[in-house]
């Protein structure tokens, strides 16, 4: 009998398909845990947008030598120009126009923040007797937080959370020198 030369045995097509299928299944289980969800990206994008707006507002205050305030409400924010004579005035410039948060997001102000009253930054309105004028029938929504941006480029320190209804949470903290940090809160 003649010995046939031995051929190296390779993998069959079925063995290769099974291995590829197992790798695919493992990837399907791992990738969603590694990649951020669409909702997490939306919350992160909104937090970054707010930080960028505050920084741009700080630069605007330095260039124009004007004071501004960003008012933070539970589901929206707005920017006001602080005019010492006529009081706070809304700004309708595109980057600084009022912004409503998406329906599934809201702000939560950390309790250690002291909300600065705008009354201390403007000339109070007085009646003919020199007493503070009360505006009748006008009940305004009070902001949870006033972030004051001064003409010097400084800002009032703040700490607030941007939270989505499904539990994604980012914390924004601002220092007096204008530095803003964004941190994702893990549970």
Q: How is the topology of this model organized?
A:
Blueprint: H1 13-34, H2 38-64, E1 67-72, E2 76-83, E3 87-90, E4 99-100, E5 105-109, E6 145-149, E7 158-164, E8 169-174, E9 180-184
Antiparallel strand pairs: 1-2, 1-6, 2-3, 2-4, 5-7, 7-8, 8-9
| Terminal Cα span | 73 Å
**Can you identify the CATH class of the domain at 39-122 and 141-184?**
Alpha Beta
Global geometry: elongated
Beta percentage is: 25-35%
Specify Rg, calculated over alpha carbons: 28 Å
Oligomeric grouping of the chains = single chain
Class based on secondary structure composition and strand pairing: alpha+beta
Notes on the structure:
26% of the residues lie in helices and 26% in strands. The protein is built from two helices and nine strands, in the order ααβββββββββ. Strands 1, 2, 3, 4 and 6 form a five-stranded antiparallel beta sheet that branches. A hairpin with a 5-residue loop joins strand 8 (169-174) and strand 9. The chain starts with 12 loop residues before the first helix and ends with a strand.
Features:
alpha+beta, 2 helices, single chain, four-stranded antiparallel sheet, 26% helix
Condensed summary:
With 187 residues, the protein is of the alpha+beta class.
